[in-house]
Write a structure and sequence with these properties.
By secondary structure, the protein is an alpha/beta fold. The chain has a single domain, classed as Glycogen Phosphorylase B (Rossmann fold, 3-Layer(aba) Sandwich). 43% of the residues lie in helices and 16% in strands. The protein has 6 helices and 6 strands, in the order βαβαβαβαβαβα. It has a 6-stranded parallel beta sheet. α4 links the parallel β4 and β5. The radius of gyration is 16 Å and the shape is globular.
Length: 184
């Protein structure tokens, strides 16, 4: 249902970030992150850790310091203030790597390419997203990405993503209309 609304209009801007939003209750795979960040930097993308859930701040601060990366931390901001900041970062992001479903959904709504980080015995990301949008998945236990990151040099991956979201929106239009008729 998160794709039921139109994609948010985004003024053309440079997509300079490679955003990373990780669950703070899981230990980060530092060697994998190092490889992904190195690849992003070699493509002239700036890594930025993005806190979408306040309790993820401590791990993001540690990782940002370790990798000499930027951070969009929550700190003492209100929920609405942080959501706006997160949205702005994702709008300026080429890609978003996350093990948080809503981070990937928010990223897609800002046309950032989603990269799902999969944990053993958890199918939440795959079961929710893989049949709806084109998405890359990385194994959280791997020491290196299974394939090179798609840096979408010709823009085809972003166009495919936007088309998939529009298709999902179209499929939900009839459901939304039925629900509105029921509650009206």
């Amino acid at each position: 249902m998160a794709f039921g609304q139109a994609l948010e209009a985004i003024a053309p801007r440079e997509r300079r970030y490679f955003a990373i939003s990780l669950r703070g209750d899981r230990v980060a795979n530092v060697p994998l992150l190092q490889r992904v960040i190195d690849e992003a930097r070699s493509a002239s993308l700036e890594p930025i850790f993005v806190t979408q859930v306040r309790r993820d701040d401590p791990q993001h601060r540690d990782l940002a310091a370790r990798f000499d990366a930027e951070i969009c931390e929550w700190g003492d901001r209100s929920h609405s203030e942080q959501l706006e900041r997160v949205s702005n970062v994702y709008a300026a992001s080429h890609s978003v790597l996350s093990d948080r479903l809503h981070a990937l959904i928010f990223a897609v709504r800002r046309s950032a390419l989603p990269i799902g980080l999969l944990h053993p015995n958890s199918d939440k990301l795959t079961s929710t997203l893989e049949d709806v949008i084109p998405i890359t998945f990385l194994d959280s236990d791997a020491s290196t990405p299974s394939a090179a990151l798609d840096l979408d040099e010709d823009g085809s991956a972003r166009a495919a993503l936007e088309s998939a979201v529009q298709r999902a929106q179209g499929e939900l239009d009839s459901v939304r209309s039925s629900v509105l008729r029921l509650v009206s």
